[in-house]
């Protein structure tokens, strides 16, 4: 019979393309890892030893295959010893222990006789998973040493074929060491909460150290958390000897920017370190706390704590070694060795700290002392030397020794390429090396270093701080100027490079939502499968956070949650193999251009310590502009702009046009010509720019006495704000808007809690200030009018709105919001810092009838995460739902707004300050009217805002020209896109 290629069978099963990541070389403790070729989507795969499966013949080898970044196996392959004749293949495919095991998980059609590569006889089974009905493949083949049994997701079929026949391609692309460790951590951490295997503790600690050194802090967190769980189960939660794992966990949380969680663990560690059997524990605690303080920007406190750590470590080192006696020989005392290593690292970090201050001349001596201590321990590894060289280069730069810094960075990069190839430390060093080469005019060499580092970042799907990325953009711009013929390609490279910069937590949450929509492409079953995985991740993180605060008795729940997450990931790998790519990869300029309409432009911006860059995509081309605006100056201008818009009492401020003009001049003015004629401007704000609606920037001079006639940016463009270019591309790549059958659900006019309810929720001894603020959350009768008018405009039914006492947390949960295209929440919002006893951003609703306290009147961001939406637009017509500006703006957006994005909103209409009732009602109503007539969410909001501006002083009060009234609303995300044909009614002026 003719050979039927397995890849052809895949086409019949309807498989799709998975993500662009790879697993890699094993490290000690992770088990042997072998290349396994590529799957049907071109993903690199590896094979590792796997659990034994039931079989009717002796098992020679059992392997699990991992592809494309997934931490659950894509396939399992079992090599048996015995005859591989046709009768045996038929028997294995039709019955026996393996087939019984397979049938418990999948439903298979009758085996089909075929041949694999090289004419190898095989039996192919086309299957579907019982959980969800997703495609699955199984086969029995005559392998080189006996029958081979294999099963897995459809896209893994080529890998299964290669392993079965022994025809696996050598090597995999984009190798990086920590990916294999992530798989080991996932396995061991799942077991840690359900077993008492103390032997796994050291293995997990070693994995954590490996991952920490590779700067894979998230996976290191998993390893240390699992090690801590094992140790606490055996020794008890308050055993002082658990402090080592506890401190490592805290530091890796801090390294991810999760300072509050880290601080709670460090607080737990303090009394344990005092009683720990490890004499180095107190020194290590001071050391790690210092590093966490530096991470939080508390440099003075960090330096003081680092000096404490230095003294504590030094007290444990033999005096002769501290005096620089190189002939003392290697140290054998483990505590002394540990103290010397700690002291070496402390002095290296001290060198970094003092190099930034007035004592920079001390830095070279500290580096020299650090290196000497390493030599004396006999543990001067390539990785530690590379870090030391990189630190030494930083101190050389601060001392004006550029040539020395260049040599040191080149040496560090070489050592990292050997000690940690393909990992973040190598990428960081390559970027630093590129910046030094560019600084001395060696641009081609600089680009070689930048591009090598960028390849690592993309392969590992990680990002760098903005200030490391900016020199790459500077160098590309200089080359574009010098080589005009290559300028278009270099500017596209600059746009891709800008995506390598780290952004706020908002991006991660919003991208989760857009990736879910993109992976589903309108298939509700796929969307539900992805949502289950995302919810499983959220549930597991919540349990871990609860455990970190000291809660006991959670391990069984954590073990169950880990099992649920593993099952959910396995399902998504089969249902939506492209999900991880949508979730983690960046996009290039061509992908953005393909997603834009003919009269749209996207502008993204990066602001650093010394300057910034603004990059625009329009019509398939990229334009770039260097900006003198720094992150600090942008923050100052944003705060000044907001202060002139809203005064301390929440009323219109004394508006000064200068900050709005300065922001436009620093960000968009250099690209104004290229933006001419763009009806919609999509902006990707950075840092403090998250705290303003861009429509209120001024394109020219303005008279504070006639603000209605001022040249606001909204007069030129409809504005869409997105957290990242990838978000826009993913949302639009799905090609579909909401499939919800019902138009609208509205909520407003809440009933405030009584003073007695507030007193019980905010006790006077701890929360008196909160109680006073909460008592000021008065009823908003204007929101009733706003919601009722929206109900009329959208054609909704009376039962689609909840007003007054009916607007409760329970009514929000029971409103079947997943069936509504527009959801409207008109109420107060409370953001971080406004109520110290309320830990999360929240919206205010009516308290539950007869409630003893006011707790049920606050719907927290974590509650909103649990909603399941399919909404084109969620209108948060509340007080300050977009953020208070500056750093707080980003955090607020990553609270309420990110929760609603995660829940399934494609777009949000949020407010950046407390709104005026009349202006808000008119803005929302006119926006909805225009949307109902066919306008996009962006165009509809712009039309409503222009109405307020144009009618200020005519049919509306002249004050409405002040941005306090017309500018608070901003569209975040895509929202509703325009219908093909727009009704003329959308441009008509409504009756006021």
TrEMBL record:
Residues 526-571 form a coiled coil. It comes from Belnapia arida. InterPro entries: CHAT_dom, TPR-like_helical_dom_sf, TPR_rpt. The keyword Transferase does not apply. This is CHAT domain-containing protein. Keywords: Coiled coil, Signal. It comes from the Bacteria. Pfam families: CHAT, TPR_12.
